[in-house]
Amino acid sequence: xxxxxxxxxxxxxxxxxxxxxxxxxxxxxxxxxxxxxxxxxxxxxxxxxxxxxxxxxxxxxxxxxxxxxxxxxxxxxxxxxxxxxxxxxxxxxxxxxxxxxxxxxxxxxxxxxxx
Length: 115
Prior knowledge:
Shape: elongated
Structural class: alpha+beta
Order of helices and strands: EHEEHHEH
């Protein structure tokens, strides 16, 4: 298992935000819009949660990929466990979109059913 001391600060190089499962054309259109921006991914994780990920490093990540404010880092950083570490976690997504075209391809195979 990779420890924090062995890691290159992978968990400090992005921000994720969960959102409600897409249900209609407008929701899927918004996902496509997100993907039109640089350094953005959208995925459904292995626990079934929908996530938008922004690849952007923490301002406090040093050139050595170590936290420069380790002693005063936020609680969310303190709570991040090695089990959740990208280097230790393996597959994280059941569905992954990196380009808007991938959403269109997905919807061709999985049409929207509006009630």
